[in-house]
Amino acid sequence: MSPEVWVAVIIGAAVGALVTFLATQLSRRNDAIAATLVPHRTRELMAVLQAGAVIIRRDRRSAYSNHTAAALGIARPDGALNTDLADLAEEAWRRDMALEGEIAVSRGVLSAPRYVHVRVTPLDDELCLALANDNTESRAAETSRREFAVNVSHELKTPVGALSLLAETIEEGADDPEMVRKFAKKMRKESRRLTKLIQEIIEISRLQGGGSVIEHEELHLDGVVHESVEAARLGAEAKQIRLVTDVKDRPVVVADRDLLVMALRNLIDNAVAYSDDGSEVVVSLLSRDGVASVSVIDRGIGIEVKDQERIFERFYRADPARSRETGGTGLGLSIVKHIAHQHSGSVSLWSEPGVGSTFTFKLAVHQEGTS
C-alpha cells in the first residue's frame, strides 16, 4: 500500500478507537448518574414488581425501568421513553400531583396497539415514578360486554315487537276465527323463537363466565354423534332432508356430554336450515393422530369469503333475511365455538358459495392412564 493509504488507515483506526472510548465513557457516566439517582436496593425492589415500573427524569428519559416496562413498550433499557408517558410525567410535575392515564403502545405497523394503564407520581422536582399495567384484555372484555348488552336488547326487540303487533291484530279481528288461527300460529312461532333466543343468551353467558362448570366424564364420541343426529332429525324431516352418519371410529373423549350434544346439534341444525329441501347432510366421525374430528357437511348455499371470518361472532348472520325466516338467533355458532374452547378443542369452517359448507369440531382423544 502507498503511504497515503497507510496514513488513512491509521487515522481511521484512531478515530474509531476515540469514538469507542467516548461512547464507553458516556455509557459509564450515564450508568453512574442512574446509579446515583436510583440506589441498588430500589432497583432490586422495582425489578421484582409485576407491574411495569419506571423512574422518569426531567429530561424525558428513564433513570431506571424494569423488564416489565420494557415488555409493555413504555421504556427501553437505554433510557428512551414512550412519548405519551413522558408527556404525562410533565403534566404531573406541572400540577404537582399523581396522574393516571391510558397509553396506546404500537408494536409495528400491522400489529394492533396494546393499551397500558399508567399512574405517574412526582417524587421530587427531578424524578417521577410510573407504574404501568396492561389494560388490553380488560378493555376488550368491557367492550365485548357492552356490545353484548346492546345486541341482546336489539335482538329481543324483534320477537317482542312482533308478538305485540300480532296480539293487537288478533284483538281487532276477534270475530274472524280464520284470521285468529292464522295469527295465533304466527304468535307461536315468534314465542318459540323468543324462548330459543333467551335460552341461548343464558347458555352463552354461562359459557363465557368464569363460573361455568363442565361435568367431565369419559365418553364414546360416536354415541354423542348419534344422539345429536337423532335430536335434529325432526327438523330435517320437515324439510325432507336426509341425515347420514358416517362413523369410522369410536374414540373416547373426556367432556361434558350435554354440551357436546348441544354443539353438534347446533351444527346439524345450522346445516339443515341453510340446505335446500330434499338435499342431504352428512355427519362424519374419524380419529387420527390423537384427535377426534366430527364434520358436518352440507350441500347448501355456502358462505361468502367475507363472512367466513366472522361467522362465529355473537349475533352475526351471513344471510339475515334467511336467518329470520328459519328462526336463527345468530348465537348458535358462537355457542359451538365456546363449547369447543371449554374442552380445549376447536371448530373450523370450509365453505364455498353454491357448493356447501363443512364445519369440523375437533377434540383430543382420551389416552388411558391420563387424567
What is this entry, summarized?
With 371 residues, the protein is of the alpha+beta class. It is built from 11 helices and 12 strands.
Task: Pick out its properties.
single chain, 371 residues, alpha+beta, Beta-Lactamase, Helix Hairpins, Heat Shock Protein 90, five-stranded mixed β-sheet, 12 strands, 51% helix, elongated
Describe the protein in words.
The chain is an alpha+beta fold and 371 residues long. The protein has three domains: 38-134, Beta-Lactamase, CATH 3.30.450.20; 136-213, Helix Hairpins; 217-371, 2-Layer Sandwich (Heat Shock Protein 90). It is 51% helix and 22% strand. The protein has eleven helices and twelve strands. The chain has helices at 3-37, 40-47, 67-72, 83-95, 136-172, 177-208, 221-238, 257-273, 305-308, 320-326, 332-342, and strands at residues 52-57, 62-65, 99-105, 114-122, 127-134, 217-220, 242-247, 252-255, 280-288, 291-298, 346-352, 356-364. The protein has a five-stranded antiparallel sheet with strand order 2-1-5-4-3, with helices on both faces. Strands 7-9-10-12-11 form a five-stranded mixed sheet, covered by helices on one side. A hairpin with a 2-residue loop joins strand 9 and strand 10 (291-298). Helix 5 runs antiparallel to helix 6 (177-208) and helix 6 (177-208) runs parallel beside helix 11. It is elongated. Mean pLDDT is 78; it is low at 320-324.
Measured by DSSP, the beta-strand proportion falls in 15-25%
The quaternary structure here is single chain
N- to C-terminal distance? 76 Å
Shape call = elongated
